[in-house]
């Protein structure tokens, strides 16, 4: 299995509070992604990174920011959480050698 | 931009019966195609992928899929399902350029019954 972990795995927070989710990889892959999974929508791309300090927006980036200060870590921040951001968040890494993404175990976030 | 349509949100099937999960895509550029499986409360696991070459792709757990460019489809099949195949299945597409950003379908819940 690809070395990819997410923390925390579960979080409950209140509307208006900041939240940061962490994705950590041990594969030294260049590309990293954040998706959210919601019933009836599948997975949707929030932000992605193609290198240290290089990030770009995905389909549903409003209300989210990301940072990547080193290859192994990709952080997703909700500056002021809203109930619409209650979701399961998945991080993924991409290995150019085999053209496939490997997914982390997910973080279940509940915003009350 | 790409899009993916999974025509069936739920597919019930009896154990040992064959199953087909349908996936159609739309894209203005060449694509790579993927099927992922998600077991309850777990992450996504790659079942199979089409990059190029033979249009019939075999994956793990006895699944296979056929890429049909003229019909822009990538349907997933298994000749005989098992209870353990109960899961949600996602079809996804990416462009063939760098970055591999995936666009997912909305998923098909496969429920295998005795």
Any overview of this molecule?
The complex is a heterodimer of chains A (112) and B (114). Chain A has 112 residues and is mostly beta strands. Helix content of chain A is 0%, strand content 61%. Chain A has no helices and eleven strands. In chain A, the strands form two sheets. In chain A, strands 2, 4, 5, 6, 9, 10 and 11 form a seven-stranded mixed β-sheet that branches. In chain A, strand 4 (31-38) and strand 5 form a beta hairpin. Chain B is built from no helices and twelve strands. In chain B, strands 2, 5, 6, 10, 11 and 12 form a six-stranded mixed β-sheet that branches. Chain B has a four-stranded antiparallel β-sheet with strand order 3-9-8-7, with no helix packed on it. The radius of gyration of chain B is 14 Å and the shape is globular. The mean pLDDT of chain B is 94.
Which tags fit this structure?
heterodimer; A: 112 residues; mainly beta; seven-stranded mixed β-sheet; four-stranded antiparallel β-sheet; 11 strands; globular; B: 114 residues; six-stranded mixed β-sheet; 12 strands
Would you summarize the structure shown here?
The complex is a heterodimer of chains A (112) and B (114). Chain A is mainly β. Chain A is 0% helix and 61% strand.
Question: What characteristic shape of chain A results from the CA principal axes?
Answer: globular
Strand content range of chain B: over 45%
Percent of residues in helices of chain B comes to under 10%
Report the β-strand fraction of chain A as a percent range.
Answer: over 45%
Any idea what the radius of gyration of chain B is? 14 Å
Low-confidence stretches of chain A: none
What oligomeric arrangement do these chains adopt? heterodimer
Give the biggest sheet of chain A: 7 strands, mixed
What is the structural class of chain B?
mainly beta
Helix-strand string of chain A: EEEEEEEEEEE
What kind of sheet is the major sheet of chain B? 6 strands, mixed
- The number of helical elements of chain B comes to 0
């Amino acid at each position: 299995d690809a070395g990819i972990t997410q923390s925390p795995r579960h979080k409950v927070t209140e509307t208006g509070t900041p939240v940061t989710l962490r994705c950590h990889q041990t594969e030294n892959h260049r590309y990293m992604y954040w998706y959210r999974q919601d019933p009836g929508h599948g997975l949707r791309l929030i932000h992605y990174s193609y290198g240290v300090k290089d990030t770009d927006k995905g389909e549903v980036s409003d209300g989210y920011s990301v940072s990547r200060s080193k290859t192994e870590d990709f952080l997703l921040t909700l500056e002021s959480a809203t109930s619409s951001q209650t979701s399961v968040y998945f991080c993924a890494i991409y290995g150019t050698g085999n053209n496939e993404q490997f997914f982390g175990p997910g973080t279940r976030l509940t915003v009350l | 931009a790409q899009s993916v349509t999974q025509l069936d949100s739920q597919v019930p099937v009896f154990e040992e019966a064959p199953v087909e999960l349908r996936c159609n895509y739309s894209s203005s550029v060449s694509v790579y195609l993927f099927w992922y499986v998600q077991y309850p409360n777990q992450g996504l696991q790659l079942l199979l992928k089409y990059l190029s070459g033979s249009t019939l792709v075999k994956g793990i757990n006895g699944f296979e899929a056929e890429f049909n460019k003229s019909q822009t489809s990538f349907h997933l099949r298994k000749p005989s399902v098992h209870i353990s195949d109960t899961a949600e299945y996602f079809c996804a597409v990416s462009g063939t350029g760098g970055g591999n950003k995936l666009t997912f379908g909305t998923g098909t819940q496969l429920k295998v019954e005795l």
